User: What shape does this take?
Amino acid sequence: MAQELPDRVFYRIKEVCSLTGLKPHVLRYWEQEFKDIKPIKSPKGQRLYKRKDLDTIITIKKLLYEKKYTIDGAKRFLSDKKRVVDEIKEDLMEILKLLQDKQSPL
Assistant: This one.
């Protein structure tokens, strides 16, 4: 997607549709299927998506429409990606702990 995303805290569903080229019913369906999309509701009941949600939506769109994944395949991809990121975080935390232990005076 060549269009640059506006830097905002929240995006309304109409704006997400405009940015992604998706219809509102598709976004609402994906909210049910993908646990990583969690818009909050405004006091008026409008869906408000965070940047993380928008990034996830764009990734899902690429997986489904460009790479021809199934819904289940896209779920597995996102789950595997999250697992790898979690493992990397855990490894980095271990390295940081080792470095801190090495620097602390005995």
In short: The two ends are 54 Å apart (CA to CA). The helical segments are 13-20, 24-33, 51-66, 71-103. DSSP finds four helices and three strands in the chain.
